[in-house]
Amino acid sequence: MSYTYSLPTTGALSFVEFFKDVSAYSSEISDATAQRGRIRTVLKGLKKEAQEERDYRHIVNTIEDYLPYLVSVINCLQSGELKLKKNIETSWRSTLSDHIIHTGSNAPRITCPDIYYELLFVLMTYGYACSMQSNDILKTIQEGSSTASAQYNKAADSLNTAASVFNYVAYEVIPKWRQPPENRPVETIKELPVALSKMALADAQYIAINKALLAGNVSKSLVAKLYIGVGGQYEMAYGLVSSISGAQEVSTDLKKYIYDGAQFYKAMGKKYLALDANDNQKMGEAVGFLRECKADLRSIQHSSLSKPHLRKSGVASRAFKEEEAVSELLQKFTMINDTVTYQDIPSRQDLQRIIPNGRGVLQMKQYQLPSPRFGPTREEEQSVNYARSGAYY
Q1: Alpha helices in 90-190 (DSSP H)
Q2: pLDDT of amino acid 312
Q3: What pLDDT, on the 0 to 100 scale, is given for residue 381?
Q4: Distance of CA 225 to the CA centre of its chain
Q5: Distance CA 124, CA 126 (A)
Q6: Cβ distance 160 to 213 under 8 Å?
């Protein structure tokens, strides 16, 4: 399961108010405003719904309907076919700022200039929704069913899309936003979408690991390396969000989630190193890695208990369940080592030296904006390709 994002809301916007003359595209500009209004309505309605009732697929589809119009407006501005009579300003709520703890309902709506501020937040919201949609898919999977494998693929693909969108925001959109104001939301600082991209791709890899484990066709050594790889991605994400400082800082809740995730996946790597050691008659190593694993899992839970003002991390819940299984294994392996194998248990430093480097199995997609609905390049397109074309819904 991925981080539970609180999706932002936005203020009203009428595109026609910002342009000198829209006669060439009067109907299309009205449609762009209408599509943008749909997003505002859907996001506002989401806040009133219980978490389990939210339809993130509907949000994804609504954003995909709007994006070709937004791309068209950007292209028309770049080509000069539309000229501004005043700077475009849009307002979005910052839901990943430090003062947000629970639902994000008290987040300030921050107004900033430039069409790229609009594109940036629309795409960030798209990434959040894709990530949350993956969570919804995972909840519906029935283990052992004929559709389970396809559902795992679908959930991982949704996270991969989120990762590619966050990455696109960081490297393609933020650099084009010239002279951002001092009150810019934390979401618009490059390091944050890069961190979210790494986390989303790591979560997709975690799903791939689960699928492989259920199929039973993967070695414990490889699983350990894959978990270590996921943990490494989370560690890099934590380093990125921790580097952001100033007027806007990243939500403590999100930072804690990422930190706990790094510890959890490294612990899972140690669990599978222990299982691999057992398979290779290295019972001392097996006991040592399980002890380290249990200590890491316990640390995650204690960290959550020590900060009751923060929303309880979903990672802490997983750590609690996993600790029970690890404790049983540790008791079993310790008994075997104490009565049969009598192997020395390596120190923490010795164990650390034999932990392998992490590995990855998934490659991030390359996100591209959809084809424009109108304006420049429209005639060059064979047909209007909507963002949702080819989707499996």
Answers
A1: 115-140, 148-168
A2: 57
A3: 41
A4: 21
A5: 5
A6: no
Vertex 48: Cα angle to 46 and 53 (nearest 5):
65
CA distance 149 to 161: 18
Q: What are the helix and strand counts (H, E) for the chain?
A: 10, 2
Report which of 250, 212, 221 is spatially closest to residue 99, judged by C-alpha positions.
250
DSSP state of 89: E
Q: What is the separation of C-alpha 134 from the centre of its chain, rounded to a whole number of angstroms?
A: 10
pLDDT at 1: 75
Is the distance from CB of 320 to CB of 234 less than 8 angstroms?
no
For residues 168 and 123, the answer to whether their CB atoms sit within 8 Å is yes
Radius of gyration of the chain (CA): 24
Beta bridge partners of 89: 113
pLDDT score recorded for residue 392:
35
CATH topology of domain 219-365: 1.25.40
Residues 117/9/194/33 CA torsion (nearest 10 deg): -40
Contact at 8 Å (CB) between 261 and 315? Answer: yes
Q: How far apart are CA 211 and CA 178, in angstroms?
A: 44
Residues of the chain under the 70 pLDDT cut: 99-106, 247, 304-313, 378-393
DSSP-derived secondary structure letter, 149: H
Domain ranges of the chain: 1-217, 219-365
Q: Which CATH superfamily is domain 1-217 in?
A: alix/aip1 like domains (1.25.40.280)
